[in-house]
Write a structure and sequence with these properties.
Layout: E1 7-11, H1 15-27, E2 31-36, H2 39-47, E3 55-58, H3 67-77, E4 83-87, H4 92-101, E5 105-108, H5 113-126, E6 130-131
Parallel strand pairs: 1-2, 1-3, 3-4, 4-5, 5-6
Helix pairs in contact: 2-3
Modified residues (4-aspartylphosphate): 59
Keywords: Phosphoprotein
Protein name: Response regulator
């Protein structure tokens, strides 16, 4: 893991979305230490890491362990972790459930890559808890 780059682990079951997202994150200077097709894979990886990523990025709807369950599990094990939900779900119910689970940010997949990068940087640098209130 790079000492200068923000590290993150990413769980997204849709390969068509996951792969370009990882490419964008790497091109934007993030160190993606793992990209996984479900929450269980990300959790298992994190349990075996010597150093946790700076940020966890997760989709909501995934097989085996969904994003809300993953968020709860991460924060149970590592209470100071920063979990960001990135999803196509736009209903307020999901935003509220993500907050209850302990996510620090909720982003819609419909925003462009530049704004996703901005949100990740803001959460990492300021520790901001952001739910649709970013100045994008």
């Amino acid at each position: 893991m790079s000492a200068n780059k923000i590290t993150l682990a990413y769980a997204e079951d849709e390969r068509w979305f996951r792969e370009p997202m990882v490419e964008m994150l790497v091109e934007s200077g993030f160190d993606v230490i793992g990209a996984f097709s479900d929450g269980r894979e990300l959790l298992t990886f994190s349990e075996n890491c010597s150093t946790l990523p700076d940020l966890f990025l997760t989709d909501l709807r995934m097989p085996k362990l969904n994003g809300l369950e993953l968020t709860k599990e991460i924060l149970k094990k590592w209470p100071h972790a920063k979990v960001i939900v990135l999803t196509s779900e736009i209903e307020n119910f999901y935003i509220e459930e993500a907050k209850k689970a302990g996510a620090v940010c909720f982003l819609h997949k419909i925003i462009d890559y530049k704004n996703i990068k901005h949100a990740l940087l803001e959460v990492h640098q300021t520790g901001a808890t952001t739910f649709g209130k970013l100045n994008l």
